[in-house]
Amino acid sequence: MLKNLLAIIVSSLVLISCSSDGLDSVRSETKGMTVEQLYQEASTQLAKHNWNKAIKLYEVLEATYPYGKYSQQGMLDLAYAYYNSDTPELAIPEIDLFIKTYPTNQNMDYALYLKGYINYYNDNGLLSRFSKQDLSERDPKGLQDGYFAFAEIVERYPDSKYVIDAKDKMNKLVNALARGELFRARHYMQIKAYLAAINRSQSLIKNYSNTIYVEEALAMQVVAYRELGELKLSNQTNQILQLNFPNSQYLKTPWEYQGMPWYSFWHS
Fold it and tell me: Could you tell me if residue 122 is left (phi over 0), alpha (psi between -120 and 50 degrees) or otherwise beta?
């Protein structure tokens, strides 16, 4: 597996080198073009989904005409092209640079939406795609970054056409983050690291109190405290469970570990 991964990395470096040669070719092709002409050609390639050609054109545009409305819009188009060419790790920095450099741009809501969208769907970059990393192993930072980008749209641009979808994805991201905490708490219960499981489940309850995973988090704590010999805390937590979830299955049958992939929520 490691040999295959190294081979892929080497191949990627070769592709990057070839890409540099391609960029020089595009510079020659577009020499003498006005900024409007260069932007139009890049946009045409983008509309045709010729991602690699569009990327090179936008990169030339950015380097040749670094200021003005075409350059600003070109940065967002370039980020979009990066994402669609399976290089989201290049798209996010481009968007962040745009947000930092042009905070009053009229298309800021789109920039934030694009950042949220990429973080929402990104499977954590180049190496995770090639190593078949499970979504349950994803670093929650990307999900959090996506959430905050969508939240900023909702707060700053309530009339934006992206608000409805942003709110929908925010709800799904909250559930994803809560599910991630639950997944980790389950793992700690499985290996009998009960204190760590309690900490994870408490974090879930504190930060994601409106999700459906609170019930299991409480039930898990009941068992964890009992296993630690903290019977008073176990009983108190059970009372909280009963108060908030009077029909909970865990009041009849104590929580037991059952493996369930965190990523299954993406398909629900």
Answer: beta
